[in-house]
Every structure is written in structure tokens, then in C-alpha cells.
Amino acid sequence: MQRSLNINPDKCTGCMQCELACSYENYGVFNPARSRIKVFDFHQSGRKVPYTCTQCDEAWCMRACPVEAIKVDAATGAKIVLEPVCVGCKVCTIACPFGTINYVQATGKVQKCDLCGGNPACAAACPTGAITYVDADWTGLERMKHWASKLGDQPHL
Amino acid sequence: MGWARRILRVDLTAGTCTEEPLRMDWARAYIGQRGLATKYFTEEVDPKVDPLSPANELIWATGPLTGTMASTGGRYSVITKGALTGAIACSNSGGHWGAELKMAGWDMIVVQGRSPKPVYLYVEDDAAQLLDAEWLWGKSVWETEPALRNRHQDPLIRVSTIGRAGETGCLFAGIVNDLHRAAGRSGVGAVMGSKNFKAIAVRGTKGVSGIRDFKAFMKATVAAKKVLADHPVTGQGLPKYGTQVLMNVINEIGSLPTRNHRDVQFDGAKDISGEAMHEPRKTDGKPNLVTNQACFGCTIACGRISRIDPNHFTVQNRPEYWGASGGLEYEAAWALGAANGVNDLEAITYANFICNEQGMDPISFGATVAAVMEMYEMGVLTKEQLGIEAPFGSAKAVTHFAELTAKGEGFGKEIALGSRRLTAKYGHPELSMSVKSQEFPAYDSRGIQGMGLTYATSNRGACHLRSYTVASEVLGIPVKTDPLATEGKPALVKAFQDATAVFDSAGVCVFTSFAWTLADLQPQLAAACTEEFTLEELGLIGERIWNLERDFNNRAGFTSKDDTLPKRLLTEQAKTGPAKGHTNALDKMLPEYYGLRGWDDGGQLKPETRARLKL
User: Fold this and answer.
1) What pLDDT is recorded for position B1?
2) How far is CA B456 from CA A12, A113, B463, B493, in A?
3) What is the per-residue pLDDT across B430-462, written as a single tens digit (0 to 9) for each?
4) CB of B68 within 8 Å of any CB in chain A?
5) Over the stretch B368-394, which tens digit does the pLDDT of each residue have?
């Protein structure tokens, strides 16, 4: 079963544990500047929104790559950057509609979320359940349950 | 190693920025942040210095856990000689700025001298430069942050800045980062303004990589986060109600200072409580509270984000105040509310917004207004002088004074002096509810005896964050003690003071100590820094930091006579509630406390104390 990162902004407090965990997992350093998930703070509304790659099936980044440096991890469905192949042309960063693949000055390559091989560090570090890793077919389950509770909480006739 | 192992020294007089290696022998002896910066400060600054002179220094300091995955590891402190107090000042703030400085590869920034014209500091990783701030001078905190992000075309910049209050010399001006997190107390913002120093903008992309043992560190931080999540205060009470969880609790035990400490209970407490912030308003059907919010790395998330009712008189036709921003913490809600007999939640939320917008300590501001209101009711101050009728309970007066004080206009110029100077000027020094010129926070020490000793002996003037014995005396953490008893309180206060110095110096939030003891913090510090940070060693370091601060104050001219409370708390009995009939029995606690500290009768460190603590 493939899983997806499931993000619920209502539960996000903006604590940055996900960004710290991501940078530690991938680079062995606590550094939000190297995180592949970013938390956005919308000050006027008070909302905090974590945002990262959703692993498109028809992945624009993969299709745009001229050297086939992005491949699919069959187990997780993640689109993974092959660093030895990547030439740092950045065409994928133009192609991605969501901005979730980005260039890294330090390596001269691009980087994006790779779902940590099936055990995403961001979800493990999130203290509030704003980021979970669930059945890819049922990211809507919690929301369905919320609305179903309107019926479920009624007494039996 | 936890530390970035280098500091940035900024000489405003010369206009230079230079790098220095961190004194690792001092880091080992004082950890970081509060302790380490105080060591630098006391080595470099004459205790007799005028706080507003160029010879005073101002240090922004992170701790070894700042910028790491340790829960709440985002704190920094500003250390200086306080403009309000003339004592050592250490004002601690959360938000994201401290972590950003660490990410840029710096443990602290030492600022000295005075710039001939307004400047700000721009730090981008290794590069640091002083830049012209004439165009920023006069701007609020809320204007300065977006202006600097625009100027440098970088939305990820974090800003620590003064607003108008710091520029105009308000003696309780604070330094604000991330729009509403503040190094609030003791007038650190006034010192910054006196140096023509507007802001520090930081962008850090280097990260924190120098952890001694990453594997052990991750294990220790995960375990400690679980302790926070499982504790009723840090896992439930604080996320839901913030520190405002205390308003009704403290009122019920008769320790909510009301109307300038005339009373100890406030009948309007429930209207300005954490619970009230959740209630839908009658006017627009929405609650005052929008959401909670975490500071960097914090798994508690006690911060309040509020929205003012757009129909409220304070913000009518002023849409710039209709958005969500930093809401009421308990101390601010008390100082702007109960201290003045005001129960209008929207009005005090607005006054709090103004304090954040212009960089002003809401505790000292609110408590000073309380003294003004008492003098107004006594006929000492008149409507003509104040520009408004100012009886206790007037929300209009509090919000009006907030606007004036933040901008240094009208009677606001007098309020900006703080309560000790203002009451003395008008002939009633006994009405200043302060210690070492700093106003009390929200606990009346007639009903919580240990807090009287806490206030009297706090190195930065009256403060609850130096030894929060409320935890023990009211909440039963780590053990319940009788709030009306004095027995055992000197040892309790000392233990809290020493432990808190370690929490602050590590770079974590003192609120973790509702759930953590030093035994929870120690494995994190040891894994990050050095195995030499044993539990016993940390206890000794805490004591060393406390005594270092004390010794600076002694050399600045403070004596045991300054370790006291206003006459009102020592002689006027609490009128209602469980503490009815009680005064604070400071004289029963202070001599024993001096003995435990190893000080002589004059409050000076004995030679053997100095030797034991290696001071």
C-alpha cells in the first residue's frame, strides 16, 4: 500500500519540528534552510500551513528533466532526484506548478521530498498530528469522518 | 558541541563588526544565553555605568540548545544594565529570531558604543554589516519587519527591533521579534534606542551541526518531548488556554493584584480569563482567540493569536487592527486589566497590540497606569493633567495611555518613566508597586508568600520568571507547599532560582519546567555539549549564575535594603479570599535565604561562597 503525507493546517502550531526533522534526516543538521517541507505563517489569519511535494502521478518535474535525473520509487511512489545524474539545470523548478522542487547552492543539484524512503521524518516529528502519513487512497478519511459524525453522533431512533 | 563557537562584536561608535571565537572556558562554566552573556557583560562593563550611556553594552545571546530539535529550543535573551532598574537585565524572548541567529552561525551578538546616527545590523550567515536606519526611525515594530524584508528582498529574514517606545526613551521599552514576541522587561529597548540602534535583521542558512552526540541527543529530546506531552499543564492547559489558564485560578486563591494592589481579588477576572477568550462574543459571534501558536521548536504551543472585535470602540474604522496578532498572555491580561480594574477583554487586547506594535512592556506599563489611577482617585492627578478621566475600571483611559506612552506624547511621557519615578515625582512613592524600580507581575505575595521572597531577591527587579514558586505553592509542582506558610520557602526560592538560571542558559523555555526537572534537561544538554554537564554540575552552574548577577548588582550599588517589598504588601492586610488578613512576611524568610545563599547580613557574597562557586 502506498501512503501519502496528509497535511491538516488546522492542527499546525508553526513549531518547525517538521523542518528541523527534514533537514536532520537528509543532511544530518538542524537547518530549516535545507528543509524540503516549509511551514507558512499567514499572520493576518493566524493560520500556519505546512507545504511540500504531493508526489504527482503525472510529475511535471520528472517530465521536464532533460537527463532523466528524477525517477519513481516503486515502493512509495515518491519522485526521487538522482543526484549523480542531475546537472543542476533547474528546468524542473520551472516546470513544477507548486514550487516544491528547488535548487541547492551547496550541492549544485535540485532537491525535493522523497518521503524518506517510506518513513517520513516530518510526520514522525509533528507533535500535533498536523502531518500524518496515511493510505494514499484515503487522505480524505478523517474529513469524511468529521462530517459523518453529524449522523454518527445522533441518538438511535 | 551545541555552541556555534563564535560571537559577533558590533562597535556602534566605530561602525565595525568583528568576529571573535567564543570563550569556551566561560561556555563550560556558564552554559550559554543568560549565564554566558552575563559573564561577558560583567567582565566588560563597569557596574556603575549609566544604562543609557555608550559605555553600557547590549548582548543578544542564544543557548546551546537554541536552534536544535530540543522542544522550545528557540529562545534568546537580551542582557544589559536595565534602563528601568539600573540592575542586571536579562529579558528572554521566543519566536524564531534566536534560532535564526544560531542558524547564521553565531552564539551571540555583543553591541557596544553609540552610533552617531540611526543604524540597523544586517546579518546574512557570516556577513554582518551596519546599515543606515534613518529611513526606519519612527517606524513601529510592525512596520519595520516588512520594511526590512522588502529592502533585502528576502521574506525569510527574522527581525529583532525596537518600536517608537524604544526610540523615545520609554524606560520600560522592550525589544520585539517576529511582531509579537518580546524581550520585554527592564527597559532593554530603551538601552537599544539610546544607542541609535534600531534593529537586527538576520538570515541564517548554515544550520546547527555541532551537536556532540546526535544519536544520544535525538533520543533525549524525543523522551523529553513525551514528558511535555503527557503532563496536564504543558500537554493540555497551556496549549488550550495559554498562560491565561491562571486568571481564574489566581483570583480564586486571592492573589490577583487588583486596583494597584489595593485588593487581591477582581470581580471582573472571569471576563478577561483564558476561558473568556474562547467564548463567542455577543457582538459578532466570534471568540477573541483565533488559535494557539508555537515559538520555534516548541511542542507546547501556549502562544495566543487573537482578533479584536472590529466593532469595538478602540478599532472602529481602523482596519489595520482587525487582523490576527499576538493575544493576551496572563501577565499582560492582568497588568492591562485587573491591575486597573478593567474587565473589557477587547480593550486590553487592543492595549496589548499597541505594546507589541511599539515595543513596550505591558506589565510595567499596566502597573504604572494602576498607580496613576490610584493618584487620580486620590485627587493627586487631575483630568487636566492626564487629558482624560482615569478612575479604576476605565478601559478608555488604559487604551488612551497606551497610545500616548508608546509614542512618547502628552502624559504618556510621564508614564514612560515607570511607576517608581512617576509616583516619586508626584509625592507618593509608596504607591509604586515595584522592587528595584521594576513593577510586579500578576501574583500578590500576601497570598503566595514565596513570591514575596522571589520578588525581593530577583536580580532584575520584581519578576515571576526568576523563581516561579507559584508552581509549587499553587499548582503543586513538583510538590505542593502551603502558599500562606513561610517555612521552607527560602530553600524553595533558592532551588527555583538556580534551576531556572540553567533552563534559561540552555536556550529552552522556562515553561518546560512545569513538566521537566533538571533531570529531564540534563541528558539533552550533555548530549549537545559535553558529558561534564552532569546533574550536580548543572545545579552548581545555576547557583554560580545567580551569584554572578547578584555580585554585579552589589557592585552597582544595590544593598540588602533593596531586597524589600512596598509597604502596602508588608503592612496592609489582604481584604478578601483565602489570604484575608495576611501580609507578606518577608522578614521571616529573608535572613534564612541569605544564609542558604552564603551571603553576609548586607547581602554580599562571603569569600567562601565566591571560592566554592569559582567566582
Assistant:
1) 77
2) 40, 54, 9, 11
3) 999 999 999 999 999 999 999 999 999 999 999
4) yes
5) 999 999 999 999 999 999 999 999 999
Is residue A153 scored above 90 in pLDDT?
Answer: no
Q: What is the mean pLDDT of residues B258-274?
A: 98
Q: Which three cell numbers stand for residue B533?
A: 554537564
Q: What is the pTM of this model?
A: 0.97
SS (H, E, C) B450-516: HHHHHHHHCCCCCCCCCCCCHHHHCCCCCCCCCCCCCCCHHHHHHHHHHHHHHHHHHCCCHHHHHCC
Say if residues B432 and B423 touch (Cβ distance below 8 Å). yes
Closest to B494 (Cα-Cα) out of B570, B571, B411, B599: B599
Burial class (CB in 10 A: 0-12, 13-18, 19+), B382: exposed
**Which residues are CB-neighbours of B576 under 8 A, at least 6 positions away?**
B254, B263, B264, B265
Pick from B103, B218, B325: CB nearest A31: B103
Contact B225 A127 (CB under 8 A): yes
Q: What are phi and psi of B200, to 5 degrees?
A: -125, 120
With a cut of 80, say whether residue B27 has pLDDT above it. yes
Residue of chain A minimizing CA distance to B221: A125
Query: What pLDDT score does A152 carry?
Result: 86
Q: Between B535-556 and B489-506, two packed helices, what is the crossing angle to 10 degrees?
A: 100
Q: Distances in Å between the alpha carbon of A113 and those of A79, A81, A118, B296, B615?
A: 8, 9, 11, 22, 51
Q: SS3 for B124?
A: strand
Interatomic CA distance for residues B345 and B314, integer angstroms: 11
pLDDT tens column, B550-600 = 999 999 999 999 999 999 999 999 999 999 999 999 999 999 999 999 999
Grid cell 524553595 — which residue? B492
Round to whole Å and give the CA distance between B105 and B121.
15
With CA atoms as reference, report the closest residue to A70 among A38, A107, A95: A95
pLDDT at residue B337 tops 80: yes
What residues in A contact B325, CB-CB < 8 Å?
43
Q: A63: which 3 cell numbers?
A: 517530465
Query: Cα–Cα distance between A136 and B425 in angstroms, integer?
Result: 70
Kindly determine whether residue B68 and residue A44, on different chains, have CB atoms separated by under 8 Å.
no
Nearest chain B alpha carbon to A9: B291
Across B357-361, average pLDDT: 98
Cβ contacts from A onto B, under 8 A: 84
